[in-house]
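User: Can you write out an input/output pair for a complex, sequences first and structure second?

Assistant: Here is one pair. Inputs:
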Amino acid sequence: MHETGIAMDILKIVKEELERIPSERALRVRVKVGRLMAVETDILRFALDALKKENPATGNAEFQIDEVPVAVLCRSCEHVSLLDDWVFMCRDCGCRDVVVTSGNVLEVTDMEVQ
Amino acid sequence: MTEVVVQKSVMQANDELAASLRERWQSNRTTVLNLVSSPGSGKTTLLERTLGALKNEFSIGVLVGDVQTDNDARRLLGYGCAVLQIVTNGTCHLDAAMVAKHSRALGDESLDLLIIENVGNLVCPASYDLGEDSKVVLLSVTEGEDKPLKYPAMFRRADAALLTKSDLLPYVDSDVTLIRDNLSQIHSGIPLLQVSSKTGEGLDAWYEWIRQRVEQKKASSPVGQE
């Protein structure tokens, strides 16, 4: 249940960006959440929608949450596999000596402002 | 209406602080372990045994995180090691800021080994780098063989796993081979030590694992690799 804290951090980044641009309001904010970040996107969305109202600059912003799948690079055949389950294994050669190349991201990617 | 590229990591503040802690512990050559598990898997009892066994070999400090109470810190006093409780007041994990504040208060610059007992939770602590050298995940034999599959992020990030409460194996329907297989699906090659803090089974291997980490760190350059 750390989604509330993460939502607060996201809103803080949005607020800092609005000040930096400067701009009055965020209309749309896109957030990338890697599946290895142990973040439940429904709870994150709920927290964002509840907390955004505390600030008029974010009150009407629509949050788009894109889940980023886990990908691994095989150390033996260099094939990159997207994992649709949680078996950390090369889908090409079956080797389990793999390095995670995607799925650890948690970022505010871009936003539309007014 | 304007489109703005942001690309800012939400974990940036935590990760930067964790990186500065890692740098500090590298220059002091303090080995730092982050113990994670579900509540009740035996982290504190394992620590009691570990402090008892290693207190004369190394200068050890412990930070212990809980949502409420300082019960765990009180249990760990009396071994002559520096112990501080971090009460998170509802937060389900430790973050780098809490660790930075309390490790200074603990006097971590003189430690060979700092053990951080995280809040019992296999989800949230996975996302927070504390600047540690290794995450050690505990899983007790009463918890179900599929724990690694249920909490893949944590088991993937861990550097070592301990199967605790092995003394209970005769009384529970726990299939150790299945646990190993499940763990290997998530994290192939991760060491899994079977231990019992009650009977002492496997603890020598655990202490040896710690000794190797401490010796490696002592022998490393104060500015880290390269």
